[in-house]
Amino acid sequence: MASMLQRSARLMAVGAIFLIFLAACAGAATPAERAPTAAAGPPGEDTAGDPAQGDDGDQADAPDGTLIVRSGTLQLEIVDLPAALDQARTAIGALGGYVSASREEGDEGERFATITYRVPVERWDEALAGLRAIASQVVRESTQAEDVTTQAVDLAARLANARASETALQAIMERAGTIDDVLAVQARLSTVREEIERLVAQQQDIEGRAALATLQVTWAMPTVALADAQRGWDLSAEIDRAAAQTVQALQGLASLAIWLLVVGVPVIGPVLVLAYVGYRILSRWSKSRPRRMPDAGWGPGAPGSSGAPGSSGAPG
After folding, report:
1. pLDDT tens, residue order, the chain (316 aa)
2. Residue 133: which residues within 8 A CB-CB, separation 6 or more?
């Protein structure tokens, strides 16, 4: 009984020490959360929000302490694709950037490449101007800016709290007297360290995206009229379509013949036979009927007729 009471007392002491350290760490992290707000400017001055964007799409400089993630897309038309890609790689490299992804497709009639560049954010405008100068025509351009200052501040505060918790747990582990206490603190310490690693990765990702802007450029050669016309016509496809139309026409004729044989002969055949028999009967009847001869006593050529009305035909 006494051993159980002693063990419970030790656990309560360990828990009390842990809560005291957490309270102290939270109080120490509070100024860090307020520091960016105080550094942003005097009270009443609105420094938060997205940076201004000019009519030409270039972003204005962000206030100090603001993290902006810049990204954009360009669709450029060029005459010589390999030469343009080499010039762009050289220009981006001179600004401290690099190619993070590339894809090239097409045939002899039309070739294009999609290249993703990472450029230092302070050289963003220079990169845009340099790539525009290489192209013969700018087909499409789009730029975006995302303010990630709040996310960065929140990550920094959470990371500071996690590291303070790690320090407190390490101190508690040194004072733990039993194996059960050590295992409990160690499990909690492992969880806190995993949280620290995750927060560090997120912080590095945000800082990396804010430091290096992302620019995706599509380089395309102008479409040749002949190649464009040939691309829309395929000889084998046309032959297949013509053969299909011929087969469909023959199938229609065959279907019509089958319907005439199956439906037309039983229905129309008797009618045609009856019509033919009637025609033959009428023909024979008309041939066997005697013809009526005209009367000789009548007519202008009959004897005794004078051809004038009222004349008797006798000599006067």
Report:
1. 445 545 555 555 555 555 544 544 444 443 333 333 333 333 333 333 333 333 344 444 555 678 889 999 999 999 888 999 999 999 999 999 999 999 988 766 578 899 999 999 999 999 999 999 999 999 999 999 999 989 999 999 999 999 999 999 999 888 877 888 888 888 999 999 999 999 999 999 999 899 999 999 999 987 654 445 555 566 777 788 888 888 888 888 888 788 777 777 777 777 777 887 887 788 877 777 666 655 545 445 444 444 444 444 444 3
2. none
52, 147 Cβ separation under 8 angstroms: no
Tell me, yes or no, if the pTM score tops 0.70.
no
In the chain, what are the domain boundaries? Answer: 1-35+64-226, 237-286
* Closest of 180, 160, 187, 170 to residue 34, by C-alpha: 160
Q: Give the amino acid at 134.
A: I
**Which stretches of 4-123 are assigned E, i.e. beta strand?**
68-77, 98-106, 111-120
Characterize the bridge pairing of strands 137-147 and 68-77. Answer: antiparallel
Could you identify the residue written with the tokens 């299909």? 244
Q: Which residue has the tokens 């340099």?
A: 130
φ/ψ bin of 65: left (φ > 0), alpha (ψ from -120 to 50), beta (otherwise) = left
